[in-house]
Amino acid sequence: MRRLAARGAAGDAGEVAAPAADSTDCARGRHPSPRRLIDLCAIWDPGVFLPAVGWKRASGFARRRLNEAETLNSVREAQLELLEAARPRGPGSRERGPVLRMARQQQPPPWVHAAFLLCLLSLSGAIEIPMDPSIQNELSQPPTITKQSVKDHIVDPRDNILIECEAKGNPAPSFHWTRNSRFFNIAKDPRVSMRRRSGTLVIDFRSGGRPEEYEGEYQCFARNKFGTALSNRIRLQVSKSPLWPKENLDPVVVQEGAPLTLQCNPPPGLPSPVIFWMSSSMEPITQDKRVSQGHNGDLYFSNVMLQDMQTDYSCNARFHFTHTIQQKNAFTLKVLTNNPYNDSSLRNHPDIYSARGVAERTPSFMYPQGTASSQMVLRGMDLVLECIASGVPTPDIAWYKKGGDLPSDKAKFENFNKALRITNVSEEDSGEYFCLASNKMGSIRHTISVRVKAAPYWLDEPKNLILAPGEDGRLVCRANGNPKPTVQWMVNGEPLQSAPPNPNREVAGDTIIFRDTQISSRAVYQCNTSNEHGYLLANAFVSVLDVPPRMLSPRNQLIRVILYNRTRLDCPFFGSPIPTLRWFKNGQGSNLDGGNYHVYENGSLEIKMIRKEDQGIYTCVATNILGKAENQVRLEVKDPTRIYRMPEDQVAKRGTTVQLECRVKHDPSLKLTVSWLKDDEPLYIGNRMKKEDDSLTIFGVAERDQGSYTCVASTELDQDLAKAYLTVLADQATPTNRLAALPKGRPDRPRDLELTDLAERSVRLTWIPGDDNNSPITDYVVQFEEDQFQPGVWHDHSKFPGSVNSAVLQLSPYVNYQFRVIAINEVGSSHPSLPSERYRTSGAPPESNPADVKGEGTRKNNMEITWTPMNATSAFGPNLRYIVKWRRRETRETWNNVTVWGSRYVVGQTPVYVPYEIRVQAENDFGKGPEPDTVIGYSGEDYPRAAPTDVKIRVLNSTAISLQWNRVYPDTVQGQLREYRAYYWRESSLLKNLWVSQKRQQASFPGDRPRGVVSRLFPYSNYKLEMVVVNGRGDGPRSETKEFTTPEGVPSAPRRFRVRQPNLETINLEWDHPEHPNGILIGYTLKYVAFNGTKLGKQIVENFSPNQTKFTMQRADPVSRYRFTLSARTQVGSGEAATEESPAPPNEAYTNNQADIATQGWFIGLMCAIALLVLILLIVCFIKRSRGGKYPVREKKDVPLGPEDPKEEDGSFDYSDEDNKPLQGSQTSLDGTIKQQESDDSLVDYGEGGEGQFNEDGSFIGQYTVKKDKEETEGNESSEATSPVNAIYSLA
């Protein structure tokens, strides 16, 4: 028999344990196990290994060879002997047994046994086709339904109808539909169309039509030449939200303290509406344990109080799809009472009933009636039991289950303990429950008998089966339910009974068995399991492939690896039947496996330690009966990168130059890059640094240069690191003594190491300290190196105080030690000492076992056992190995065991996610380690098989919803349940023409929980949501898509809010509509307030229409600034506000200071005093200037002034004016000199020709022209009228 196989490079890289087959099964001509899909019986045709499908399928040549066998009587003996050759001979190992001999011909080569063992490993179900697009496109495949609408498909009558059906296959399938079990001719109905390359139906009502005409049961058929797949039967219904019947309700008259039920009786809708009670003024009715709403929608009063008639009561029904709320006419209460005064102070009275004169009564049940009732619930749904009682005082409700306790993990009390909800009901939740209603007057009880039924649910859902020609297989369709569901098989959409007979197919109840499948056996099978509560329909195709071997990886790959490393050469392949794989080196030699080589099941070749001689070309050859394929991998071995001269710790003074060496040896064919880190961060090479190939130089060392420097030498394959510490010494004051002036340095290396007192587990190490270089040695670090596991690598052994130079070292068995010592002082570390002589301790059994033992699956049918390998000091002897034991937990089966030399082992053919007990024990040539601890591991996880059901959505507010779902059964998780996850996306906005992003988002709910909250939603939007359960492998199937609508919310802030001030009288405001209206905008609210410094004015509020985006404001004063706050409004309220301020005027700083200081009394007084003092000083100054500005011309005042008169020697003139007034335009200084003004009114203007000038003492030099008296007088009058000096002089 041949079998399809795919082996990928991503497969397990460990050893796989395979079960052995029983030889008697082959002898009897049957499979060793009914679950195995491969026949272990085989015959040998020279040069070709043929998995047998029976004597008739053997080649004629092989039959002749078998008939000629003189030493064998039958094929049975050959099969028994071949199985004996492959049977394991001991725990964890397989011995070579006798091989099959046929008529004294040549024995099969060794790879035959490997191929046979590979067959033994391939006993699981049908495998998946590799994801390589070239293979996917070439291989034929029957159709598979990938997407379909829910079974109960309710649509909105206002929208077009969409019935989804998508499928994949090769060739691409075609689609057709049935409606109410009859062919649905899409071409005859102009409103109905089918999407391209899909089976999805679109029914368009834009041109008219009634959606109700298309209600019915639809089923999709996807067909290609290899079979037909079916969708579920999709029941299409149009959502209905009928109006409440009009009725006139008379006031309800009731006596205070009596019970009352207000019936809702909502109109029947599809789906059922959500009921809630409000007053006619849309105020919610406050509910408590006295007044509450039942699950049937009625409003129950355990006892009526006078305060209850302060409002009316209206029942409201909200219909999901149409987003409408229907309101019933309101009930009005009229309460008859013995105490007509509704004194609010009595509401908190400890006994309000007696205070109001209400008679006390024992409890009685309002719902349900009587003392007993029964209720049926489906498995996986929520069970809701309800008891509502009347009585005075209001009774308390308690719940119990007969013969046991309530399930604490699933039970929840609701509606003030009047309702008991049990989520995710299972069969053990059936039984009798009773509620107890009690008050101080007595108690009563009601018993509810609960019966749990179940719609069909999967135990084994049929899976697609991919086989090779001649192979056997089976489809299993196993479901459970209450009552027990019936199973019906179909093939390509037709009942199996009416299908053409197939001798290779056998139906056994819920299983179809295929024997000797051929290409003609390809088809799609449907399993329909149903009972009175529902049905399940599953498609599973049988595909038969015959594919010669082919390689999946690129050809002629080049792999470069560093010497002494471990590497793996991948050779992923695919074929049907399973190809055998062999590796060769340089095109010659035998198959590579064993020793330094290990071949994994997926075809990868691992070389445990690369050596120079391993370089070359490796060829992998995959062979099956249809041919062979090969690929080559060229392996190049490179020398490792090593830093042979490392940077050393240094101490430098500030301002000096430091050089850090880093010399590297590397493979010349690889590109070397040397970089530096400072304090483990990339070093910036500034202008004070110089980086060369083998060193780093720092010029003018500063304090900031202190730290650790790491040299990183790297190639594209490996890297090496070396670190040194730079200490920068700050400038120090002149030393006060000679010792302080001596420079300090790192100590010299210790020397003359000597080993004495040699013992089995200890040795004494003695050394001579080196010079401490003016800094006392604080510590010694002893390091060791061993030459077996990590030669050349030094490890810290122990640390000792700086006062000792001899120490006893504790040693481990079977280690060839070599020691060295490092001295440390406050400056740094010394160079290591020269190594000591070697000392090997004797061996012993291990005293510990490997740590961190784990068992985890890397595939759904294996478990990888890993551990941390033991180092040289814990090996205690040669040939360290590990005894790995495992067994299924709680089965008490015998331990499986195998001896492993590495640090991992893969157990194959395990069930999905089951616990195993694991033990890993160390062993060497001297014996075994102690008995190991037992660790619990788990086999591989598979994707979850079930989705959360009964997903319920409750809208909490405009941005959040509450989710509740039925948890999946543990056996369907197929792994460790990580979380429930909700995928949701915004389908559309309720606002027209508003584009929304339909990007999928997710919300996670870790752990096994039945509820959660999704927040940060957009208000006023339509959403869709799906739930999945997530384990370590990934997501399970998605739940039924749920739709919900978020109510209106408050809008976001208006966009681009701008404030402009064109002048000091007006301010212009502009804005854009909010980015997220979150509802229907009803307007904008603008609030603004004037402020001047810390003073605030009165806030003013303006309301605008939703279309207004501009506003002009008149300023009250030109000094104050304004702060504006703008927000948009919906019916819910105002949203986020945008805030801006008007621009600051140019003199704002002065205005602020004036507003803050100028109004202070002390400041005003100070300014007045300063002004008065300045005025007095000015008056005194002007008086002194006026008196000291006269010219000494009194002695010659009688001499007439003429143009010819010579100047006096002292530079003064003799005036004829007796008033002795100063010259026009001049100003007299305090020292009697005349200074020139900066104004244009110069003394030069009074002379002729502009020749006037001053002499050294400041007096006027030049000829003064004689004017007429009138002109002279006019000039003086003008000067007196304008000069402040003259005005003050006249006052003096």
TrEMBL record:
This is Neurofascin isoform X12. The chain crosses the membrane at residues 1162-1183. It holds the Pfam family Ig_3. It is found in: Cell membrane. Residues 143-239, 245-332, 363-451, 456-543, 548-636, 640-722 form the Ig-like domain. Residues 1035-1045 have a biased composition (Basic and acidic residues). One of its GO terms (cellular component) is plasma membrane. Residues 1-21 have a biased composition (Low complexity). Residues 1223-1236 have a biased composition (Polar residues). Keywords: Cell adhesion, Cell membrane, Disulfide bond, Glycoprotein, Immunoglobulin domain, Membrane, Phosphoprotein, Repeat, Signal, Transmembrane, Transmembrane helix. Residues 1-30, 832-857, 1034-1053, 1130-1150, 1193-1292 are annotated as: Disordered. GO terms for molecular function: cell-cell adhesion mediator activity. The keyword Glycosyltransferase does not apply. Its main location: membrane. GO terms for biological process: axon guidance; brain development. It is a single-pass type I membrane protein. Residues 749-844, 849-942, 947-1049, 1053-1149 form the Fibronectin type-III domain. Belongs to the immunoglobulin superfamily. L1/neurofascin/NgCAM family. It comes from Acinonyx jubatus (Cheetah). Residues 1206-1217 have a biased composition (Acidic residues). InterPro entries: FN3_dom, FN3_sf, Ig-like_dom, Ig-like_dom_sf, Ig-like_fold, Ig_I-set, Ig_sub, Ig_sub2.
